[in-house]
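User: I'll paste a sequence; please echo it back and then give the predicted structure.

Assistant: Echoing your sequence first, then the prediction.
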Amino acid sequence: MEYAHWIFGTLFSALILFYTSRQLNLFGKFRRSENNTWQRNSNADFQKQLKDDGIFTYENSYFSFPFFEQTKKYHWTDIKTLIAYKEDINTYDEIYLRILFTDGQVFLINETTPGWYKFITLLKENIPSIPANWDYDIAIPAFTQNMTVLFDN
């Protein structure tokens, strides 16, 4: 009778382990791999972000964005200096871009700024002297600032 508790506990633990492994798909056997709805939705959301203007408006060779209670409009040639760096936000890093304009204004954006991806793409197109893979170079190694002057006119 004294082994009954041990046997019951072992069986109960095995049942919990089996159920948990199925729910978490620990062994990769229980759930069908073709069920990738989350991955498709995630990819579609990212594709939408790549094309999203976000806070920016683009026309010809100008771009504009809200700046406090007004809208600032700049030509790509109005960019004097670009400084990129990474901030350590506890468990992840975030890339920042500090933009200094010829009129003395400074604008700071980061990866969470709506329209970041499209702005960075257009920035690379309009200022070809910027290193092509600067954003990847800033990202590695993790948790270091990697401050880099991308452009200084």
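The beta strands are 57-59, 62-67, 70-75, 79-89, 92-101, 106-110, 148-152. Confidence is low (pLDDT under 50) at residues 29-33.
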